[in-house]
Amino acid sequence: LSVRQRLMTLGAATMLGIGSMLAVGWYENMQVDSALTRALRLQRDVEQLNEMQLASSRLVLAAMDTIIDRSEGVIQKERADIVRSAATQLAAGSPIMKSLAQEAGNAALAETYDADLAELVKAVEVDLKRLVETDAPEADYAAIDDAIDGAGDRLSATLDKASDTAGQIMQASVEGATARASTSLYIQLGLGLLALSTALLLQAMHGNAIVNGIR
Questions:
Q1: Which single residue of 26, 102, 119, 135 could bond 151 by disulfide (Cβ 3.0 to 4.6 Å)?
Q2: Phi first, then psi: what are they for 106, rounded to 5°?
Q3: DSSP designation for 76
């Protein structure tokens, strides 16, 4: 090999080693960023699910208070506002439930959410309102109380399960990102050592050959 060829071989080996390190580092960092972004999104979903759980509790509590104060003959405006606000918040969270169910590969997770919510809202805003305003008998209130409790319990159980599922996926995503970052570091260190060893070997070989040629 000529001096030019030897120097080009040494330079190419060095550039290949550096390029491999950069390529692997870029790819692994992209994967880690993707996993962390997913974890942050899931964290926001968990917070939203917790807010939805509180909204469900407020809605049921307002209904129970209305049943207790049924002798007033009307649902208090404050309680009606609580029911309406909670129902709106729970309905707005339906896409989160469906997205989480799809991500978890468990369609049953959100299968009954919309139906349970619709049943709960109807029981409170329509049926209970009618009973209060018409001074219905005690037996009717017992039935509506069971209906509200049943729908509320199913909705609460669904939200709890969804929150737990999101937390598990988030934890797995964070652990995966951590493991990937560690693996990426070791790969880059290995490539760096390989590139350094190769460069030193080629430098020794070509350097001796050039020196001997000059000598």
A1: 119
A2: -135, 85
A3: -
Helix axes 113-122, 3-68, angle to 10 degrees: 30
Q: What is the full per-residue pLDDT of the chain (215 aa) written as tens digits?
A: 666 777 777 777 777 777 777 787 787 778 778 778 888 888 888 889 999 999 999 999 999 999 898 888 888 899 999 999 999 999 999 999 988 888 888 888 888 899 999 999 999 999 998 998 888 888 888 889 999 999 999 999 999 999 888 888 888 887 877 777 777 777 777 877 877 777 777 777 766 666 667 77
* Amino acid at site 134: T
Among 143, 100, 144, smallest CA distance to 122 is for 144
- CA 66/CA 80 separation, integer angstroms: 9
Region for 76 from its dihedrals, namely left if φ exceeds 0, alpha if ψ lies in -120 to 50, beta otherwise: beta
One-letter amino acid at 161 equals K
Closest CA to 109 of 168, 151, 150, 159: 159
- Could you give the CA distance from residue 117 to residue 94 in angstroms, rounded to a whole number? 10
75/29 Cα distance (integer angstroms): 57
Return d(Cα 8, Cα 206) in angstroms, integer: 10
